[in-house]
Amino acid sequence: MTLFFRQHRLLPFAVAAVSALGVIMLAMGQRDLRLAVVALVAVAASLVLTDLKGWVKLNRTLANVAALVAVGFSVRDFMRFERDTQLLAIANLLIYLQIVLLFQPKLLRVHWQILVLSLLQVVVGAALNLGVVFGFLLVIYLFLTLATLMLLFVCRETMFAAAADEQPSRAAADGPPGAKPRGATRQIEVLPATTDQAARLLEAGVVRQAAYGGCVTLAVTVILFFSIPRFGDTVWQPASYALTRTVGFSSSVSLGTLGAVAESTDVVMRAEFRHADQPDEPYLIYGDPLFRGSVLTHYARGQWHHGARGRGYRLGPIPDKPSQVEGVLQRIIIEPLDEPVLFGVFPMYKIHASQRLPVKYDPARRRFLRSDEAMAGQFTFETLTAGFRRGRQHPITPEHRLLGDQEHRTEFVQLLQLPFTNSVMRLDLDLAESRQRRADAQPIDELPELAAAAQREIERSAIDPADPYFKLKAARALERYFHAPPFAYSLEPQSRDPAIDPVEDFVKNNPRGHCEYFASALALMLRTQGIPARMVVGFKAGDYNQVGAFYEIQQLHAHAWVEAYLAPDEVPPSERPEGFPPDTTAGWLTLDPTPAADDAEFSSRGWLNTIADIGDYLQHLWSSYIVGLTAERQRESIYQPLRNFTWNAGRLSEGAGGAALFDRFWNAMTTNALTLRGAVVLAAVAVALVLVVRWGWRLIGAWWRRLGDRGHRRKPARRVAFYERLEGILGRHGMERGQRQTPLEFALAAGAELVAHADTRLHATLPRRIVEAYYRVRFGGHTLDAREADAVEQQLVTLDQMLSGHKRNGDH
Amino acid sequence: MARRMTRAVNVRRRLPATATAGEPLTVELLASSASRRRGIRLEDTIEPCDGHGRRRRARATSLIAEIAARQEARGRYRLVLGRRGEYRFGPLYVRSSYPFGLVRRTVEHAIESTLVVFPRLGTLTSRWDLVLSRAALGAQRQRRQSQIDGEFYGLRDWRSGDSRRHIHWRTSARRGNLMVRQFERTQNQDIFLIVDLWQPARGTQEDADYVESAISLAATLVSHICRRGGCQLHVFVSAAAAHAVRGGAAGSLECAVMTGLARAEATSHAVSVARLREAIELVPTGATTIVISSRSDSHACRQALAAASGAARGETPEAAICLSSRSDDFNAYFEMESQPVGHHGGGRAEASPSLIHHAPIVSYRLSRNGGS
Question: Hey, which of A6-20, A394-408, B315-329, B343-357 has the most confident mean pLDDT?
Fold first, then answer.
């Protein structure tokens, strides 16, 4: 009985825990947490006031009225006919109803209703939020709910057994048919049963059973989740998911606006680098890789934008990797963003010629784009990059076009654009064209200090203008110029003189600012010195996850840097990209003028970093393989390894039949998966698989039972000779063993018979002693040694002689 | 899982040997399986075999937490069957919603058993003792008159007042003093019990209750007599199917009489004189006759008894104990804790007192010499 009460005590706690967890999971998707907090308080209050103390109990009428009010309240929000609002209205309604239910007397029905509401909350919560924490809580919820359900089951069975059946009270009244039962006793009254069996059910271990059930459920779910083929590349997104606003790579950059959003830790993308020849091996990089997004060439009034005419862009084929170039595999997973631009380490090529990348390539701006549909979800693409050499990002990015020639003169001019015209005129270009494009430019003398500072720094560096690599050396000298005081990196908003250009103000008056100021200043300085340059926006480095061997790039890693154009003859041989023809390959020299931020506080975190890495890795796995498991990813991550494994196993065992069969099946599936035929075949295979497993399981069960039965039957058949002799001796003298008598009972009965006669009384204990020896052999697995066997033999002989003598005496 | 739990489960029911209406009884349900089963609920169906079973069907459940592989687990339920008669048990359902109570599966086992429930027992009041004692004295007097003193069992010295007829002269002569024979005197009288279960053709619930009261009294009396033992008991039940039982007052006879009473159905016809005569022929002389009737007017029963006994032996009944369940005095002779009829306590007696008819106890005795 103690257990009976204990399980009833446990149930409110378990239901309250499930309710609280459901509310938390729902709250994770809601934007307003106030109601969730109220619900959590209600859960705790109802547990104490209603379940434990019994002070507050809503009767059914009050509860119904309260529920109707809640419904009415929610309908108002629901009628706005906005998808998110409607979903939130449903979520709120679920919480209202749960609060009402929590304060009702906890009948089993109410417990069920609370559990159902909690489940609905989780479902709605999943529609609003699908983070890794939600997934983790989902697993906990699974186990907790199963334990609660089991407890509820035990309680229900207990109460069912303990309560008298209600049916007889209705139907089994006294009296003949038609007679009105008055004051009559019940004809059949079932009495309350004891609860010992229910208590035993509880003793069987609710926690263990729930854990077992949870593990099995989880395993089956995981297997089904990963094995059931996907038929599309759409990633499921929560309803309330908003595209993350991106910074740092928009088509135009306004100086001074970065600071407000640069601290955001929203994940933008993850990048993995692996060896091309060993795809399972991560490619380790020294230094911080730069992930290029957009290039900006035109500057005016503190704003950068791309200088190409028109709004459209030209799409072209994704370039193939030059045969001599060694590449590194890079896999980029981009979160939903409001920009179509893709990021990566340039130059990027197809992994193999037949690869069909789901991206668009804009050769004019040297950027990769994704479709508008793909922007709504997580997007993954894999390319080969030639941007690394011996573990470091190459400072020069190869350029196949020679921008100095006539064909690309327009683009070249853009790289020298300044808000004044002197430097351009010096290049002897088409002035009419330049002037036309600079019609909206600022007055010529807008950046005097910036140009003077560049000139001074180059002179200070004593670089010979006749040096064939003058541009490279000058560019690096100017880059170093910004690394030294008084220049300092700062995300704090700086006061700028509105009368002059913000970059001029940055160099002249207030040398503090973020990367865009540094990059703008350097790019414009280079241009004042006749070095074609452009501003590049993208991301720098990010946090390297040691556990998952990937970079996690967040919004705060947005970065701007500069690329200076070097003609083929201006690139020193030592720095020339390997594998590219030297005579026809120009280069973009990467220059990062931004001084490094002080990140000492991050480097000393130690084990916290490891934990953070694990968390990031889990998030990565969750978003890549759970939420973002598309058909392609499923093929790559599950089917292909399985296929390879089977194939290898088949080859290893020199029986390629199985592997070949699998291969044929695989090909059929991959070619027909999206057709009706493929679906039918798949369903048939699944059904056949289930039947085979089921049949096999039954076969094993039957075999096991048969084995057990055989063993069971064999036991009685196992005879012990001396006991058989005992039965024979006693039987000959009229003492037969009864059908339901155990050997010991038989021996005791025989002993009682022998005691009754004077001539047999002396040896009345012999049958019992022989049977005890038999029990030791038969059930104890004991083997009689020689002495024991002799003793038993002697006892049998004595018994036989004694009974024979007794019989003779009786005859006489 | 629920399907697996209910599959290949063998069940059986073990009913008690006897059951009495109004008293709790325990039914055992035994379940076994080749492999382990958990969380099984056995649900049994109970209904009276009176043609209205379905309307009065009841269900009793027993939870079995676990059945170990190849072992038998035992569950049980208790119930009270409020009325006498025959009850059908079965079919038996094996249900399970293990482990989470989300899915339930039921397997029906057509295992049926029948149990005869003996009539409800009450308590005989002290007035019954008085009546029985008087009847015993009468019987003793009759035995003296018939010079039957019992079985010889020994000799003793003569004491003043001993009858000279009992002097054993041969021994007295041998020993030199008077010795008298001693006889074992029979203290228990044989009893002839007539149970007259009558109710009008279109009987009401009240009439049925009176019948039940009469049956309960008869059953209690039989139980009392059989527990005491030492006499012959003859029982004649005038019912829809009249029957008679006789034998030494013991457990086996009690069981037979109880079974007969349990199955007896009231009739609207008069007592069958022919069947009663057959029964009286087997009743020894001097037996105390007790008539328990559910008639409002016991005269009819008395007449039948007189007619039957007179026709059988050329005698008229001298004295008998006759009690009607409709009598005011019924409660003075017989008490029941939860009597189906409202003879006492807030039952129907208060609701409809006019239904209680005054029928005084009439005593008359069967005698060879006749005369009442």
Answer: A6-20
CA distance A644 to A652: 12
Q: What are phi and psi of A599, to 5 degrees?
A: -115, 30
**3-class DSSP assignment, residue A684:** helix
What does the angle CA B107 – CA B110 – CA B113 come to, to the nearest 5 degrees?
Answer: 135
Q: With contacts defined as CB-CB under 8 Å, which chain A residues touch B33?
A: none
Whether residue A190 lies within 8 A of chain B, CB to CB, comes out as yes
CA atoms of B121 and B117, how far apart (whole Å): 11
Residues pairing with B10 in the sheet: B32
Residue with tokens 């159905």: B265
Residue A369: predicted pLDDT? 84
Q: What is the mean pLDDT of residues A570-584?
A: 79
Contacts with A182 from chain B: Cβ below 8 Å: 205, 348, 351
Task: Scan residues 197-226 of A and list those with Cβ closer than 8 Å to B.
Answer: 197-201, 203-204, 209, 213
- Give the model confidence (pLDDT) of A73-128 as tens digits: 888 877 776 666 778 888 888 888 999 999 988 888 899 999 999 999 998 888 88
Rounded (5°) CA angle B100-B103-B108: 120
CA distance A413 to A528: 13
Closest CB from A186, A189, A201 relative to B39: A201
Instruction: Read off the pLDDT of each residue in B185-189 and give the average, rounded to a whole number.
Output: 59
Whether the predicted pLDDT of B26 surpasses 50: yes
Does residue B31 contact residue B69 with C-beta atoms inside 8 Å?
no
- Which residue, B324, B210, B326, B196, is CA-closest to B271? B196
DSSP state of A577: P
Residue in A closest to B43 by C-alpha? A161
Q: Which token pair is A799?
A: 């018994």
Residues B150-183 have pLDDT tens digits of 556 678 888 877 778 888 888 888 888 888 887 7
Would the CB atoms of A149 and B351 count as touching at under 8 Å? Answer: no
Please answer whether residues B122 and B223 qualify as being in contact, where contact means their C-beta atoms are separated by less than 8 angstroms: no
For residue A208, the chain B residue with the least C-alpha distance is: B99
Q: Mind telling me how many Å the CA of B110 is from chain A's nearest CA?
A: 21
pLDDT (0 to 100) of residue A307: 66
Exposure b/e, A712-738, CB count within 10 A at least 16 = b: eeeeeeeebebbebbbebbeebebebe
Q: What is the full DSSP assignment across A449-487?
A: HHHHHHHHHHHHTT--TT-TTHHHHHHHHHHHHHHSTT-
Can you give the length of chain B in residues? 372
Torsion over CA: B93, B94, B100, B104 (sign)? negative
- ipTM for the whole predicted complex goes beyond 0.85: no
Per-position DSSP letters for B290-319, written without gaps between them: EEEE--S-THHHHHHHHHHHHHHHS--B-B
Residues forming beta bridges with residue B362, ordered by sequence position:
B322
Yes or no: say if B244 and B281 are a contact pair by the CB < 8 Å rule. no
- CA gap A662, A646 in Å, rounded: 8
Q: Give the closest-approach CA distance of A150 to chain B in angstroms.
A: 5
Tell if the CB–CB gap between B340 and A173 is shorter than 8 Å.
Answer: no
Q: Is B47 helix (H, G, I), strand (E, B) or coil?
A: strand
Return the closest-CA partner of residue A423 out of A437, A433, A413. A413
Q: Do B100 and A157 touch (CB under 8 A)?
A: no
DSSP A42-108: HHHHHIIIIIIS------HHHHHHHHHHHHHHHHHHHTT--HHHHHHHHHHHHHHHHHHHHTS---H
CA distance B128 to B131: 5
How many residues make up chain A in this entry?
A: 812
* Candidates A185, A197, A701; nearest CB to B75: A197
